[in-house]
Amino acid sequence: MEDDAVAMKISARNTIQGTIKSITPGAVNTEVVIEVAEGVVLTSVITKASAERLGLRVGSSAHAVIKASDVMIGVDD
Questions:
Q1: How many CB atoms lie within 10 A of CB 30?
Q2: 52 φψ region: left (φ > 0), alpha (ψ -120 to 50), beta (else)
Q3: Distance from C-alpha of 54 to C-alpha of 41, rounded to nearest angstrom
């Protein structure tokens, strides 16, 4: 392939498209905030290397891919 773009299928069923609102790099990890609907954000912590490899930029489109075997629910007493 001439460029780094790779098309792939993934097994995760929960993907939510949004817009990157903020990127906060740290020494090892980077926090990425994606707005998926007006006033609704998802925050992910990924490796700094992955953030750089993906070329993430504030204002660009991205997909939150959620893969979990459990989703826990809690309520106040």
A1: 20
A2: alpha
A3: 20
Distance CA 65, CA 62 (A): 10
Query: What is the Cα 4 distance to its own chain's centre?
Result: 19
User: Model-level pTM?
Assistant: 0.78
pLDDT, tens digit (0-9, with 9 covering 90-100), for 35-74: 999 999 999 999 999 999 999 999 999 999 887 777 777 8
Contact predicate 56/23, CB 8 Å = yes
Q: Which domains does the chain have, with CATH numbers?
A: 14-66 (2.40.50.100)
